[in-house]
Design brief:
The chain is an alpha/beta fold. It folds into 4 domains: about 25-155, Rossmann fold, CATH 3.40.50; about 160-230, Helicase, Ruva Protein, domain 3 (Orthogonal Bundle); about 245-330, Zinc Finger, Delta Prime, domain 3 (Up-down Bundle), CATH 1.20.272; about 360-435, post-AAA+ oligomerization domain-like, CATH 1.10.3710. Helices cover about 50% and strands about 5% of the residues. Helix 5 links the parallel strand 2 (about 70-75) and strand 3. Helix 10 crosses helix 13 (about 200-215), helix 17 packs antiparallel against helix 18 and helix 18 packs antiparallel against helix 19 (about 320-330). It is flat.
Length: about 450
Amino acid sequence: MSESKVPASPLADAVRPRSLDEMAGQRHLLGPGAPFRRALEAGALGSFILWGPPGTGKTTIGLLVAGWTQENFVRFSAVTGGIPMVRQIVEEAARLRSAGLGTLLFVDEIHRFNRAQQDAFLPHVENGTIRLVGATTENPSFEINAPLLSRCAVYVLESLSREDIAVLLRRVVAGEEFRRRFACAPDEECVSLLAEASDGDGRRSINILETVCASFPGRTSTITAREAADTLSLAMLRYDKSGEEHYNLISALHKSLRSGDVDASLYWLARMLAAGEAPLYIARRLVRYASEDVGMADPSALTVAMRAADSYRFLGSPEGELALAEAVCFLATAPRSNSVYRAWGEAVALARERGSLPVPMHLRNAPTALMKDLGYGEGYEYSHDMPGGLVAGINFPEDLGEPEIYRPGSAGRERAVGERLREWKRMRDSLRESRKDR
């Protein structure tokens, strides 16, 4: 009887990064000088929560921190574990601590614990028996109880960009573990396709890579994007090494929307979906369009675009694609204004150029007697108590004056907004003049 072969672990687990520098994305946390990395290198990293979408590196970060601090790594799932198991882990952690070894308890999907279960961690986090690292895809403000949250720093992870995932896939393909399993490899067009199909999820990208390569046993030549698309049952759109066609199509959709051509907009949407483009990528671009090109001319456009994205997440394909089509029709036929887009650019530039100018005293909060004595909040006028609901004070830092940043357009709802702002300015100027005469 032949000896059974032990299945290899999933490729995604076998090729986890061995250092922070090998991590894909998350430069805002892990890059040189970034807050998380500074705290880790200074030995000042306590318990913390990692909040982000699936496949962004939460588990890997936990493993790397345990390796850096030389702590015992214990992985615990809030789905399958309970308080009795927590007690066992804590008892073992206390024993290891007495021997000079710390314990990092990594709790996957910590949001699935109820409030009482989360309380079980509190004393052990406080006395240092464990370093708690929680991973969640949900907003910790709503899902983690306040006492536990106050004892943990929260770090937000971002979906990986297409470029991040392409770098990740190239690193995996060049590694010893991949070459041990496969003689073939994806070409650059294929890497671009896989990066797009992964929708910001690094683990998913490696799983797709493994599926594609396993579909060509004995293959020694490279795998093309078309072959990968056929393997994944995707209708193939032309891709090139620079990814130009991908950007050409999304550009065609955006510019057709901007020109009000609803028919062409629907066509380009259909082209992208038929090519296997990630629907949520398209949904994100529709949300961007609603803010950038419709804006205050019809603020409900942003709601429609967001609801379309939520509908697709709820229904998936093909049913959810109809919600995207509805959003495209709405956006293409909506009045258009880029005044918010321009105003935001000016506001950001002004904030960066002028630096940290002091907040005017009348706008400052005064929660303590000392702050009140120092003049915080003095002169603030509560608009609801003022005639016409208007105040005469200036709400910018003194050195800025009152720059006009938002300039309403004349389309849709924004025409009325512009008229209202002009009337308010006239009334405010009149109020200031009347006060000067007193």
